[in-house]
């Protein structure tokens, strides 16, 4: 119990300023035109950094017991696995669709079939 | 109720049951918002075109709301510190500040929504606005839920027949309310760049 009674106020205020600075950074970075997908990578990285600060300090995960880590690890495993599948699937379909079919669009063929022009 | 309460009956797993329950609930919330973020990614990948957030959304208002929500995370974690310090006045001040900031977030969000509706923009306008309203709307509902729980804690601390402030378990209740509130902040930390900036 004794470690719970340490005064974390100074640390909380440090994290607060870090979160404010990172918010300004991410808004500023979004105004810069990075080549390719670099802008997206920078935005996601800053968001992950902010999330890490909130989770580890404000949510006390830094001082938490292994059981909580286990619960979150299992959640993270299923989240990455289940949410990764459809994303990989869509990325794969995108890169394997022949350009002539993609240009024609998938709804063209059935439309001419069912319209029944005489 | 004496202060030397036997905590072991509330800690079947070595950590307080309330804390384990809160984290399990947050795990289910991760799956809920994770599914929505996945929908966002898949919809964006398969969309013929996707608007730039800067062109269609109000970034200054959303940045203000980010500052507001981060500040409210700090005030609620300070409220928990005040419970540990046995400073009831400080606790109530920090909780009232948290509530004020929560309402401020909703008011700013209301202005954003109002501007969209007055321009005839609704979830039906486009795929982008569909996912925008669903995700920010569900997040807004979570803010409303947090307001109820946090207001309940302020009411509870003065409620002597329910033991309130003197209950040894009260510190945990404030911590779990905070955990939920930080999660709401976490969701916004990802929503803000996803919808507005990238």
Word description of this protein:
The complex is a heterodimer of chains A (118) and B (198). Chain A has 118 residues and is mainly α. Chain A folds into two domains: 8-63; 65-97. In chain A, 75% of the residues lie in helices and 0% in strands. The model of chain A is unreliable at 107-118 (pLDDT under 50). Chain B is an all-alpha fold. Helices cover 76% and strands 0% of the residues of chain B. Chain B has helices at 17-46, 53-56, 59-84, 88-118, 127-157, 170-197. In chain B, helix 1 packs antiparallel against helix 5 and helix 3 runs antiparallel to helix 4. The longest helix of chain B is centred in the middle third of the chain and has 31 residues, at 88-118. Chain B is elongated. Chains A and B meet through helix 1, helix 2 and helix 3 of A and helix 1, helix 3 and helix 6 of B.
Write the layout of secondary structure elements.
The complex is a heterodimer of chains A (118) and B (198).
Chain A: H1 9-31, H2 38-58, H3 66-96, H4 99-104, H5 108-115
Chain B: H1 17-46, H2 53-56, H3 59-84, H4 88-118, H5 127-157, H6 170-197
Helix pairs in contact in B: 1-5, 1-6, 3-4, 3-6, 4-5, 5-6
Q: Count helical runs of chain B.
A: 6
Low-pLDDT runs of chain B: none
Coarse shape of chain B: elongated
Task: Using the CA coordinates, give the radius of gyration of chain B.
Answer: 20 Å
> Largest sheet of chain A, if any?
none
Q: Helix/strand/pairing class of chain B, anyone?
A: mainly alpha
* Uncertain residue ranges of chain A: 107-118
Q: What amount of the residues of chain A lies in strands?
A: under 5%
Order of helices and strands of chain B: HHHHHH
Give a quick account of the main beta sheet of chain B: strands, pairing sense, barrel closure.
none
* Overall pLDDT score of chain B: 93
Distance between the termini of chain A: 84 Å
Number of E-type strands of chain A? 0
Q: H/E element string of chain A? A: HHHHH
What is the count of helical runs of chain A? 5
């Amino acid at each position: 119990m004794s470690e719970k009674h340490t005064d974390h106020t100074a640390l909380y205020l440090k994290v607060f300023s870090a979160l404010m600075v990172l918010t300004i950074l991410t808004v500023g970075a979004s105004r810069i035109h990075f080549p390719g997908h670099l802008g997206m990578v920078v935005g996601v990285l800053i968001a992950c950094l902010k999330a890490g600060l909130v989770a580890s300090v404000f949510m006390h995960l830094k001082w938490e017991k292994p059981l909580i880590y286990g619960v979150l690890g299992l959640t993270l495993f299923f989240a990455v696995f289940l949410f990764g599948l459809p994303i990989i699937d869509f990325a794969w379909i995108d890169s394997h669709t022949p350009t002539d079919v993609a240009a024609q669009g998938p709804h063209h063929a059935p439309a001419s079939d069912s319209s029944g022009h005489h | 109720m004496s202060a030397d309460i036997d905590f072991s009956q509330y800690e079947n797993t070595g950590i307080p049951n309330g804390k384990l329950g809160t984290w399990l609930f947050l795990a289910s919330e991760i799956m809920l918002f994770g599914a929505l973020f996945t929908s966002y990614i898949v919809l964006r990948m398969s969309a013929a075109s996707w608007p730039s957030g800067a062109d269609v959304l109000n970034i200054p208002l959303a940045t203000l709301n980010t500052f507001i929500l981060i500040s409210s995370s700090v005030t609620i974690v300070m409220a928990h510190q005040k419970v540990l310090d046995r400073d009831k006045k400080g606790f109530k001040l920090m909780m009232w500040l948290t509530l004020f900031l929560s309402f401020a977030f909703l008011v700013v969000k209301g202005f954003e929504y109002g501007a969209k509706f007055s321009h005839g923009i609704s979830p039906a306008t486009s795929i982008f606005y569909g996912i925008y309203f669903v995700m920010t709307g569900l997040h807004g509902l979570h803010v409303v839920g947090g307001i109820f729980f946090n207001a309940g804690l302020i009411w509870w601390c003065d409620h002597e027949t329910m033991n309130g402030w003197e209950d040894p378990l009260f510190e945990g209740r404030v911590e779990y309310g905070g955990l939920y509130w930080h999660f709401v902040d976490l969701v916004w930390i990802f929503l803000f760049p996803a919808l507005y900036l990238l």
